[in-house]
Amino acid sequence: MNSSSTLRNSIFKSFFMMSIMATLISFVLLQIYMFISSNERVSLSFSIFMIITLFFTLVLLSLYFGLRTSFAFKGRIDDISTFVTLLRSGKFSARVDSYGHDELGLLADELNQLAKYIQEQVKSLQRLADEKSELAERAHGAAVMEERQRLARDLHDSVSQQLFALNMLSSAAYKNIGGDPDKAEGIIKQVAEIAAKAQGEMRALLLHLRPIDLKGEGLREALMILIEELKEKTQLEIEAALDGIENLSKGTETHMFRIIQESLSNILRHSKATKVKIMTEKKEGVVTLFISDNGKGFNLSESKMTSYGLQTMKERAEEIGGYFQIRSREEEGTYIDLRVPVA
To answer: How many CB atoms sit inside 10 A of residue 14's CB?
Structure first.
């Protein structure tokens, strides 16, 4: 039942109950007056007048108090509903007034306790992220070795095979360039396509070679350097609006940087995009990140979310208490949304 129907029911019940009370009180007063009065005719006329006056007075009073109570009840319900909406949007610092010790007051108290608990959990997650960043710095040597091994596997699985294919195709084109120019032209076209793909793979791998830590830079400064490098080395048209990401905790900065880095790497490798948009904003205690491209996209109903890159981004977002969402359709680009509550 919504608040409007609750309001109508409350008004009706108040009006009905007060009307019954007005009738009963008027009847009792009439009987008392007639009993003590000596002039029955005057008594009857006066009694009827008193009954009507008292009846309408009590009806008006019942209507007034019914409306007042119902609007107060509706206002409290609306406050609680707004508070729940704020919690769902990530504003865990919000609180709702309890107003009293009735059922709605107890419900408001419980919701406030829930918001406080969630807020403390987010702080704990962010504190753990900071501690994890410190531990990652101490284990930097092991991380570098692991990254080198992963890059070696990627080079072997992708770029190495593409270079082998380029070697075979270029040899075939050389052999056919004199005797069969049309066939040689088709082979050279394949060489150009594989070379472009290998170049994208190499750029994505080089992007991963950037250090995990920000080397003393703020998140905004590190992202601007990264974006300028990509503009110089690729054909990507990157639009960036980086606001509200100053003074974040170290763990939050590191995880957001790596999420953006991983997103750009996926764009270079798979999307065939020409335009990328990166936007950040801080509003009401929540930092939002939006990344979009005009690439070929993919079907989310397939098992893409289980891929290493996307799964890593989702895990990094969860480690700092954030909400990660990816949207994509074939031939319509890919969109990434990240919301992180901050102190």
So the answer is: 19
Closest by alpha carbon to 99, among 122, 83, 123, 120? 83
The encoded tokens of residue 256 equal 């957001």
Cα 244 to Cα 167, 217, 224, 292: the distances in Å are 49, 16, 14, 19
> Can you give the residue range of the structural domain that contains 157?
139-209
Q: How many CB atoms lie within 10 A of CB 92?
A: 22
Do the domain assignments include residue 52?
yes
Contact 126, 320 (CB under 8 A): yes
75 and 146 both lie in a single domain: no
User: Within this chain, do residues 218 and 200 fall inside the same structural domain, yes or no?
Assistant: no
- The set of residues, in sequence order, having a beta carbon less than 8 Å from that of 1 and lying 6+ positions away, is 9
User: How many distinct helices (H) and strands (E) make up the chain?
Assistant: 9, 5
Q: Residues of the chain with pLDDT > 90: what percent?
A: 17
**274 and 312 Cβ atoms separated by less than 8 Å:** no
CATH number, residue 251: 3.30.565.10
**Mean pLDDT score of the chain:** 76
pTM, 2 dp: 0.51
For residue 129, being part of any structural domain is answered with no
Q: Quote the CA–CA distance of 158 and 202 in Å, as a whole number.
A: 9
Residue 90 inside a domain? The answer is: no
Residue found under tokens 């829930």: 114
Task: Read off the pLDDT band of 234 (50, 70, 90).
Answer: confident
